[in-house]
Specification:
Layout: H1 10-22, H2 24-28, E1 38-42, H3 48-56, E2 61-66, H4 69-81, E3 87-91, E4 104-110, H5 119-127, E5 130-141, E6 147-149, H6 153-168, H7 179-185, E7 189-201, H8 205-221, H9 224-230, H10 235-247, E8 254-265
Parallel strand pairs: 1-2, 1-4, 2-3, 4-5
Antiparallel strand pairs: 5-8, 6-8, 7-8
């Protein structure tokens, strides 16, 4: 991974956990792996998505990899606490996988491609580790899909700053819209993509807390130091943008964001 712009703090781990729990039905309701199938999860981090995969497909064997040993240690601890025995965590780099070609029936990648410098090359490489007829599942967000009420130019600038920081680190915060062409160019067949919109207003308090506040706004708050260091926004303007984002979580606020889930088949 070229650079994880959100860092590896305890708060970031909490944010990822909140995101996974809040969006489980939206993103994972149709993710199930057959018994005895071998699944590779790339970039598992602290295991927020892994625990969902393992619970929903208890008879599949999931190998979850990440380059951060600290994150893997936390993921292992959580899996043990939940008595999960069908998941194996391993330290590995997506650019140099320690597996034989054709080792897996399925590959799962969630919120990882956005951080990679060359996602197309990674997908081409991962394809070699699938058995013929094996599948790949990708889930990514697209920060350009965020819109909200009340409107705020400062809030929009704060979000664009996140997009710019990720771009400078070699990633792409707008990658959700590119999943279809990426999989096609990587040589996958039967590619299909489905948008998964999160719509939040005050009638959905769980999403107000779990997504608008604890996932999205927390992400923007987390880049404050980098924004100021790079001179992308003045401090008072950035802080005003964050305040305006919190207004979207108020009684009359509305927040929308779209994730994209893509699947493809290896020939």
């Amino acid at each position: 991974m070229h650079g994880y712009v959100h860092g590896y703090s305890e708060r970031e781990a909490e944010r990822l956990s909140d995101q996974a729990e809040t969006l489980e039905d939206l993103l994972h309701s149709d993710t199930r792996f057959p018994p005895r199938s071998r699944v590779l999860e790339v970039g598992c981090g602290t295991g927020a998505q892994t625990l969902i995969l393992g619970r929903n497909s208890p008879e599949a064997r999931i190998v979850a990899i990440d380059i951060s040993r600290e994150s893997l240690a936390e993921a292992k601890t959580m899996a043990v606490r939940r008595g999960m025995t069908n998941v194996e965590f391993r330290a590995a780099d997506v650019y140099s996988l320690p597996f034989d070609r054709g080792s897996f029936h399925h590959i799962f990648i969630c919120f990882v491609l956005e951080h990679l410098k060359s996602p197309l090359d990674v997908l081409k490489t991962l394809k070699e580790f699938l058995l013929p007829g094996g599948t790949i599942t990708l889930i990514e967000g697209d920060h350009g899909s965020a819109y909200f009420y009340p409107d705020s130019d400062d809030a929009e600038r704060a979000i664009r700053s996140q997009i710019e920081i990720q771009k400078r680190s070699g990633g792409n915060a707008l990658i959700g819209r590119e999943l279809y062409p990426l999989l096609v160019r990587a040589g996958f067949e039967q590619v299909r993509v489905s948008p998964r919109m999160v719509y939040v207003d005050a009638s959905r308090p769980g999403l107000v807390e779990g997504f608008t506040k604890n996932t999205f706004i927390a992400m923007i708050e987390g880049i404050r130091d980098k924004v100021l260091q790079l001179g992308l926004m003045e401090q008072v303007v950035f802080d005003k943008g964050v305040q305006d984002l919190y207004r979207t979580a108020g009684e009359e606020g509305v927040f929308c964001y779209t994730f994209f889930k893509a699947c493809g088949v290896a020939s």
